[in-house]
Design brief:
alpha+beta; glycoprotein; 308 residues; seven-stranded mixed sheet; 6 helices; Wall-associated receptor kinase galacturonan-binding domain-containing protein; WAK_assoc_C
Length: 308
């Protein structure tokens, strides 16, 4: 009897290994590959590739619902052949173009959607450009930027004169009384005159050429040409977690949760790995077929003992 117990104890580790093998790789869960941009696609005349992702393509990854295949903050929509990106989860911007370089994004050019949709010839904005906390997007280093400042609905008391040498724009905006000014930030007159304006907004613009806000063309809406040039943003690669970097080095795509946390490496064949894709994951063969556990085998301890 003791000999029988000893044999059974020696066989238990072997049986545990066999049972584990029959259940497959614990990190080999699958995902819906349609959620990833497997190949570049276009919206209008803009080419779209990973790490951008369509906002409507969120799926479940390893039990985390509404996960996505791409970087946080790079959700896009294609609306009437216009590529739209939201900043801070609210304001919508039209994507003018995306420049890709060496597997990462060099810059993205955005234009406020309100400017794009304006048909009056006098575009206005009603918000500043803001980024969500921990945003992966930032203004690119070394890119010359300026700001246009909107002073809207300004009414000056009798004892306070408006600033000299600047004239209000001729455009009137619904819901705002008084005069309005649009000025490059470096040409805003000093003083406390802006306290008499109902709303003040700053909009980043690329400084392609000298801006003259004193001419009639500017006052009649010419500043809109500057706004429509857009402004650039770049992806902050320093925010990419080490697991995501390793995943991309293995030809995978990074999956993130709605909390902006890396939750898995999405491989081309539909497998989800914890960090890196295996060489066998780089084929287009369906992972659903290869991820099914092998047929379970029932081992009898008594049968094995009998053979021994």
């Amino acid at each position: 009897m003791p000999l029988l117990l000893c044999r059974r104890r020696r066989l238990l580790p072997l049986l545990l290994v066999l049972v584990a093998a029959s259940h497959g790789d614990a990190s080999g869960d699958t995902y819906d590959t349609s959620m990833c941009l497997q190949k570049p696609t276009t919206c209008g005349n803009v080419s779209i590739s990973y790490p951008f992702y369509f906002a409507t393509k969120t799926k479940d990854i390893n039990g985390s619902s509404n996960s996505y295949c791409g970087y946080p903050g790079l959700a896009i929509d294609c609306d009437d052949a216009q590529l739209i990106l939201q900043l801070n989860g609210a304001e919508k911007y039209k994507v003018n173009y995306i420049n890709y370089g060496n597997g990462s994004i060099t810059n993205v050019s955005l234009v406020d959607q309100e400017v794009v949709d304006d048909s009056s010839g006098c575009p206005r904005v009603d918000h500043n450009v803001t980024f969500a906390q921990g945003s992966w997007l930032l203004f690119p280093a070394g890119m010359p930027l300026d700001y246009l400042v909107f002073f809207l609905g300004c009414s000056f008391p009798n004892l306070f004169l408006p600033p000299e040498n600047i004239d209000p724009i001729t455009c009137s905006f619904i819901g705002l009384n008084g005069q309005s000014y649009v000025l490059p930030k470096d040409q805003v007159p000093p003083g406390s005159w802006s306290q008499f304006c109902q709303k003040i907004y700053e909009v980043p613009v690329v400084k392609y050429q000298s801006m003259d806000p004193k001419g009639d063309a500017w006052r009649k809406g010419g500043y809109g040409q500057v706004l429509r040039q857009g402004f650039p943003l770049s992806v902050n690669d320093s925010r990419r977690p080490p697991n995501c970097t390793q995943c991309e080095e293995s030809k995978g795509r990074c999956g993130f949760s709605q909390a902006r946390e890396f939750i898995g490496c999405l491989c081309p064949n539909g497998r989800v790995r914890s960090v890196r894709c295996e060489p066998s994951d780089l084929t287009t063969e369906s992972a659903v077929a290869i991820s099914l556990p092998p047929k379970k085998q029932i081992f009898s301890i008594d049968r094995i003992l009998t053979k021994n």
